[in-house]
Each structure stands twice: as structure tokens, then as C-alpha cells.
Write a structure and sequence with these properties.
Elements lengths: L4 H10 L1 H20 L2 H9 L5 H22 L2 H7 L8 H24 L6 H17 L7 H29 L6 H38 L12 H30 L4 H21 L5 H15 L6 H32 L2
Length: about 350
């Protein structure tokens, strides 16, 4: 794609398929901000370390930094999403199928947000794209299983490591001295670091799918040159921040008040555990879910501190996680079949 924003803007006016895909991508970015990004700032908000407004601003700035800094050094997460499945059938059919998959992701995320369930839009994204590709091709030969292996490995590691790290850090924190005021202050860099790695992880995934959509519209899906323009990084990061500002409170209340009651010490410990796991995954190039990592860390910290977590709420969230892959794959497949039929 063009490195110039103005050249891309001209292409939008000339290509309706590209304009539709761009709008759908923006929609997914917004719902990611509603349902995924709030996890980065949930601890700081519920303990009173930051007001919701200032927390959203912090998340926006750190998301931008995370996307730009990490993508400039290592774009392997974006490349994994870019190559999750192959699309054929020509530019028109391929772009229609991908747009349908994105529409399915928006629908899934909106339903989960309505119920206050913090699902992973990154996992919804790869499942929706894969379902749409299968609908276009007619079989699963289009699926690139080596990319899916990284996604599934990231899922298992992020959940298990998040809970384990949270539990260990929670136990260690019992010996730490400090007032609530001190730990509230420590939560500021903790929330900033979590938002930074949220941008590094989820921002890269949306960069990957956006580049895939542009490539399909242009009739190609080559992986020889993978260059991400700066304006596209800003577009993705600001889209997520806008979504957090519009609807993030519902998710923050769900994970930070209903599932586990957090003290300032617990909030800081959760930040430390989550950031450690996200850092390791980003260095290894594994596309993990910040939602899964943070929520698992919250449960780990709560169980280590002797607090009684609401396992009913946790079970509802886990059920939504389990349904994300098959649900979004089915939605992507169904929407793609519908879009392709209407487009004939």
C-alpha cells in the first residue's frame, strides 16, 4: 500500500470496496476499545489511582507508543495475522469475503460488550478472517496452520502464565511494605506499561488485517515486503482509544469490581504480572490476548491474596472465551456466504 496518507485517501474515493473495508476495520477498532483495551486501565480506575478520563488519555498515548515503537522493531505479530489464511477468486470476491468476516467480528464484539464480557477481539479477528476465507474457497485448504499454531500457543501461554504470574506476585506482595497511597502511585507506570503492550499486541493485529485488506483489494497477498506506514499505526491506536472512551466503563466494572475486588496493592501486582507476560510474548512474536492475560492475572492475584473471586462471573467470561473461536469462525463463514451471494 502507499506510504502516503493522502494517496491512500484518494484511493478510498476511487475504490468503494476499500472504503467499505476501512469503515469495517474502524468499527472493529472501536469495539476492541470497548471490550479489550479497558483491561489495561481497569486496576488503576477501580482503586482510584486514576479517574476514568485520565486513564483513557493514558491508554491512548501508550497505545500509540506501543504500536509505533514495537512495530518499528518487530512486526512479527502483524505478519502472523496477515498470513492467517489465503484468499483467492479475484480482488472483488476476496475483498467482499474479508469485509464480511470483519462484519461478523463487529457483531460478536457488540453482543459481548452489551453483556459486559471482556472478549478478545484479536482472537475474534483471526477466527472471523479464517471463516470468511473458508467460505470463499469452499474448504479448509486455505488455512495456514503454522500461523494458527502461534495463535493457539499464545492463547494457552497467556492464560496459564497470567494466572501463575499473578498468583506468585500476589504471594510475594504480602511481604511488601507500603501504604495504599504508595501503591496507587505505582499503578500509574503499571497501567502505562500494560497499555503500551496492549498497543504492541492488539495494535499489530489490526495493522496486519488492514494491510491484508488493502493487498486483497489490489489483487495480491504477497509477503515479500511488509512495511507499515506511521499514519496507519496512529489510525489503529487512536481508533482503540476512542472506543475505550466511549464504552470502556462497563468492562472495567465487570473485571475490576464484580469478578475480584482490588486493593491498590492488588492492582499494582496485577500490572506487574500482566506486563511481564505480555513482554515475553511480544519478544517471542506470539499473538496473545491482553484480555486473557490481564483477567487471568487478576484471578491469580485474587486467589493468592485470600480474596474470594466471583467464579460465576469468571465462568461466564471463560465460556465467552471458549465460544469466540467457533462463534466468530461461523459468523465469518455465514456473513461471507451472504455477502458473496448478494454480490452476484
Amino acid at each position: 500500500m502507499s506510504h502516503s496518507f493522502f494517496a491512500f485517501w484518494e484511493q478510498l474515493g476511487e475504490n468503494p470496496a476499500l472504503a467499505l473495508f476501512t469503515l469495517l476495520t474502524l468499527g472493529v477498532l472501536l469495539v476492541n476499545g470497548w471490550t479489550d483495551a479497558p483491561n489495561a486501565i481497569a486496576g488503576a480506575v477501580v482503586t482510584g489511582a486514576l479517574s476514568f478520563r485520565w486513564a483513557v488519555l493514558l491508554a491512548a498515548v501508550c497505545n500509540v507508543l506501543g504500536v509505533c515503537c514495537v512495530t518499528a522493531v518487530n512486526a512479527s505479530v502483524a505478519e502472523t495475522v496477515y498470513s492467517i489464511a489465503s484468499f483467492s477468486g479475484g480482488p472483488r470476491a476476496a475483498s467482499v469475503a474479508l469485509s464480511a468476516g470483519m462484519a461478523g467480528v463487529v457483531l460478536w464484539a457488540a453482543v459481548c460488550w452489551w453483556w459486559g464480557i471482556p472478549t478478545s477481539e484479536s482472537h475474534a479477528l483471526v477466527a472471523g478472517i479464517t471463516g470468511a476465507a473458508v467460505a470463499l474457497e469452499g474448504d479448509v485448504s486455505c488455512v495456514r496452520w503454522e500461523s494458527w499454531e502461534k495463535v493457539l500457543l499464545g492463547l494457552l501461554l497467556s492464560t496459564a502464565a497470567g494466572f501463575w504470574a499473578g498468583r506468585l506476585a500476589g504471594r510475594a506482595a504480602r511481604r511488601w511494605r507500603g501504604t495504599d497511597r504508595c501503591f496507587r502511585r505505582l499503578q500509574l507506570p503499571g497501567a502505562a506499561a500494560t497499555a503500551f503492550f496492549h498497543g504492541a499486541q492488539d495494535g499489530q493485529k489490526f495493522l496486519g488485517v488492514f494491510l491484508l485488506g488493502v493487498a486483497l483489494v489490489q489483487g495480491r497477498q504477497d509477503e515479500q515486503t511488509f512495511v507499515v506506514p506511521l499514519w496507519l499505526m496512529l489510525f489503529c491506536a487512536l481508533g482503540m482509544a476512542l472506543g475505550t472512551g466511549l464504552g470502556g466503563r462497563r468492562i472495567i466494572d465487570r473485571v475490576g469490581r464484580e469478578m475480584v475486588t482490588l486493593s491498590p496493592r492488588d492492582g499494582f501486582v496485577c500490572d506487574v504480572a500482566g506486563v511481564g507476560c505480555l513482554l515475553a510474548a511480544t519478544v517471542l512474536g506470539l499473538p496473545v490476548s491482553t484480555t486473557h492475560t490481564r483477567t487471568a492475572a487478576l484471578l491469580g492475584v485474587g486467589s493468592a491474596g485470600g480474596k474470594q473471586a466471583d467464579w460465576g462471573v469468571a465462568g461466564t467470561i471463560a465460556l465467552a472465551w471458549g465460544l469466540t473461536f467457533p462463534g466468530c469462525a461461523a459468523l465469518g463463514w455465514g456473513m461471507a456466504r451472504l455477502f458473496l451471494h448478494l454480490g452476484q
